[in-house]
């Protein structure tokens, strides 16, 4: 009898209010030794984890204790704080997570609705615009951001090259290379060399005319005195060639 009592002793504690065998007590102690978490702490005291007092609150913002105009960082912070405070109580954790997910879903739907409204407004403005504006927009497209930056870098390089060689000669060679690049890019989109050449030459002529009109009206104090009219006009041409080969269909 004495050997049986030593092998599996039973202890009664008034704090917990029930019998706990030596093996069960050892198992819970091992759990809390290897996993230092609030859940294990709750188990060591008989599962008396704190209960979230706003479990049944319908408004997800009030349940998390934040305002409706709270920032995303504030919502995340409240959610993490509450999960840490009421860890170990399954229903409380589920209630906190459900309120957080509902707020995220509402925010996503509002953003999606705003984008749709913006597209609808732009589409409505285009439909209400004059016929010549509609015809002009039919020749314009918005390419990928990567394509825009690549071509912007190319023509910016041509402009820098022209400025660096301004003392040696005019930018005729750089303008010719830029025109060839513009026609090449347009030919990739239109699949018509003739159409691409017309667009490229049109952009060259338009840029040169605009540059010849615009540059003389710029105050001389804003310009480098070593830059010639031909160089400044070529810089305007690079802008028009970039716009033509990037945004024209």
From TrEMBL:
Cross-referenced InterPro entries: CPP1-like
Record-level GO cellular component terms: chloroplast membrane
Superkingdom of the source species: Eukaryota
Pfam families for this protein: CPP1-like
Membrane-spanning segments: 170-186, 198-215, 227-248
Keywords (A to Z) from UniProt: Membrane, Transmembrane, Transmembrane helix
Record bears the keyword Transmembrane: yes
The protein's name: Protein CHAPERONE-LIKE PROTEIN OF POR1
Organism: Rosa chinensis
Upper lineage: Eukaryota, Viridiplantae, Streptophyta, Embryophyta, Tracheophyta
């Amino acid at each position: 009898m004495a050997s049986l009592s030593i092998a599996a002793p039973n202890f009664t504690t008034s704090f917990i209010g029930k019998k706990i065998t030596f093996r069960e007590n050892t198992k819970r102690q091992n759990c809390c030794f290897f996993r230092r978490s609030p859940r294990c702490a709750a188990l060591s005291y008989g599962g008396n984890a704190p209960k979230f007092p706003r479990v049944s609150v319908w408004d997800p913002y009030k349940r998390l204790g934040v305002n409706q105009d709270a920032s995303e960082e504030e919502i995340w912070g409240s959610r993490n704080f509450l999960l840490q405070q009421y860890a170990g109580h399954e229903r409380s954790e589920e209630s906190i997570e459900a309120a957080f997910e509902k707020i995220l879903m509402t925010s996503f739907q509002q953003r999606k609705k705003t984008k749709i409204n913006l597209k609808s407004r732009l589409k409505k403005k285009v439909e209400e615009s004059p016929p010549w504006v509609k015809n002009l927009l039919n020749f314009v497209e918005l390419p990928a951001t990567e394509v825009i930056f690549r071509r912007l870098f190319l023509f910016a390089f041509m402009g820098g090259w022209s400025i660096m060689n301004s003392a040696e000669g005019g930018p005729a060679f750089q303008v010719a290379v830029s025109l060839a690049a513009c026609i090449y890019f347009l030919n990739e989109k239109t699949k018509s060399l003739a159409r691409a050449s017309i667009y490229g030459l049109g952009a060259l002529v338009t840029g040169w005319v605009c540059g010849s009109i615009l540059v003389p009206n710029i105050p001389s104090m804003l310009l480098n005195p070593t830059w010639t009219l031909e160089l400044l006009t070529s810089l305007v041409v690079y802008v028009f060639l970039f716009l033509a080969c990037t945004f024209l269909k």
